[in-house]
C-alpha cells in the first residue's frame, strides 16, 4: 500500500465507526485518523445514528453485533432515505442470509473480523471509487466536476472553485437546459446579500475561465442557460 497515495485520496472525507468492543474501536480509530479528515466513533448503533444525522459522514463502518440495535438494523434505517453514503459492515461470521441483506442494503463490502489494515484499506479504496464515480459529473471534452471536492478536473489536474462559484455552478447544473433568470439567482444564491447583474456576470466569467468550455449561453436581458458539452 502506498500510504501517501491513500492519504491523498481519503483526506477530504469523513468516517463514522460504530463498534462496541473498546479495544478494537480504539485500534481501528487510530488507523483511520491517520488518513481521514474526521473520524466519528460510537459504541452503540443508537448513538451512531445520532452522529450520522448530525454530521452526515461519507463512509460508515458498522459492526454487525452491537449491544442494542445491530449494525444491519442501523444500515437499514439509513438506507431508507440515504442511497449514497457508503457502508461497510464488519462481522465475525458469514452466512447466506447476511449476504442477501448486504445486497439489499447496497453495502460496499463486508469485512470479516479480525480486521486487518490491508483488508480495511481495500474496502475503503472501493468506497472512494464509488464516491468518486457518483460525484464526478462529466462536462464534456475531458472536463468533469467533482461535487465532493468542489473542483473541476481535466487530465488529472484539479482546479478549485470558490464558495460562490460552487453555488452558481451547481445551481445551473440543477437547472440544466432552462433559462435561469437573474432574479432566480438573486433569490436562491444571493438571498439577503446585495446583488447586481455585474456580480452574476463576474461569477460566471470566473467559472468560464476555470472550465474553458462554452457551457453558458447568455440570454439577452433575462439571464443564462447552462448545457454540458457532454450532452450536445
Count of alpha and pi helical runs: 9
Poorly predicted parts: none
H/E topology pattern: HEHEHEHEHEHEEEEHEHHEE
How many DSSP E strands? Answer: 12
Identify the overall geometry: elongated
Question: How many distinct domains?
Answer: 2
- Strand % is 15-25%
Terminal CA distance reads 41 Å
Sequence-ordered SSE layout with sheet pairings:
Layout: H1 3-10, E1 14-18, H2 22-32, E2 38-42, H3 45-55, E3 59-63, H4 71-79, E4 86-91, H5 96-104, E5 109-112, H6 117-135, E6 136-140, E7 143-146, E8 151-154, E9 157-160, H7 163-174, E10 179-181, H8 182-190, H9 197-211, E11 216-219, E12 223-226
Parallel strand pairs: 1-2, 1-3, 3-4, 4-5
Antiparallel strand pairs: 6-7, 7-8, 8-9, 10-12, 11-12
Helix pairs in contact: 3-4, 7-9
